[in-house]
Structure formats: structure tokens, C-alpha cells
Amino acid sequence: MACVAVTWARPESTYTDKWDNINVDEILESNRLLKGYVDCLLGKGRCTPDGKALKETLPDALEHECVKCTGKQKSGADKVIRHLVNKRPDLWKELTVKYDPDNIYQARYKDKIDAVKGSA
Fold first, then answer.
1. 55 φ, ψ to 5°?
2. How many domains in the chain?
3. Whole-number Å distance between alpha carbons of 16 and 3
4. Does residue 12 belong to any structural domain of this protein?
5. What InterPro entries does this protein map onto (predicted)?
6. Is 97 within the bounds of a domain?
7. pLDDT of 76-113, one tens digit each?
8. What does the longest C-alpha to C-alpha distance in the chain come to?
9. Who's near 119: CB < 8 A, 6+ residues apart?
10. Where are the alpha helices (DSSP H) in 1-119?
């Protein structure tokens, strides 16, 4: 039993890769799909299973600089941020109000955010 308790208590090294093959480009190219994910994250709409998983892991990923993200999750996050910052600043603003009301992460990731501005 001690072995089981240690296994449960030990944090996972990465988030699940169950959703790593989601077509991020398809979501970003579809206003309907993108708005659905954003509404899920904002608590304004229903969540798909992968949207629910994202909603649950996003605060931890922000707080810990995505250290538990897989490589695909990191590259997908970069792509989504680049798209939102450059092409959908309205949605970016809504998400930052919800997930970063005190501008903690905006300040922490300022250089990264500034680097993607204008590079859609």
C-alpha cells in the first residue's frame, strides 16, 4: 500500500498526451471552433473533453511555465498565443482578464508575447 500512496502522491512528469494530436490549425482557422474553445475556457459555453482538460490544466501550466507540457503542447500553445495576439486580440483580452487579472503572467511572459506580435 505504501507503494501505491507514493505513486499517487508523486506529481506526473507531464500532462496527458491524449490530446496531442488535435489539429490546432483547424481550430484556429475556424471562428466557430475557436470561439467554442474560448467560451469553454471562459465558462461561457459547453466544453468538449479536450477543452475541459485544457481548462483544468491551463492555470497550472501558466503558473509553472508549462514545465509539465509535452513538446507538442508547447508548440501548440505557442501557435495559439501567436494567433490570438495577432489575429484575435479581442479573445486574447478576454482570456487574460479571466486567467491573469493581476497581470502576473503578462509581466512574466512579456518578452515572449512581444516576440510573437506581428509574426502571425
1. -60, -35
2. 1
3. 22
4. no
5. A10/PebIII, OS_D_A10/PebIII_sf
6. yes
7. 999 999 999 999 999 999 999 999 999 998 888 888 88
8. 54
9. 82, 86
10. 2-9, 24-29, 31-42, 49-63, 71-87, 89-99, 104-108, 110-116
Identify the weakest region by mean pLDDT among 6-10, 61-65, 87-91, 109-113: 6-10
| 30 vs 64: CA distance, rounded Å | 30
Residue 55: which domain range?
24-117
Helix (H) or strand (E) holding 117: none
Question: Is 32 among the domain residues?
Answer: yes
In this structure, what C-alpha cell is assigned to residue 62? 501558466
Handedness of CA 34, 37, 38, 39 (dihedral sign): positive
CATH code, 31? 1.10.2080.10
- Amino acid letter for position 95: L
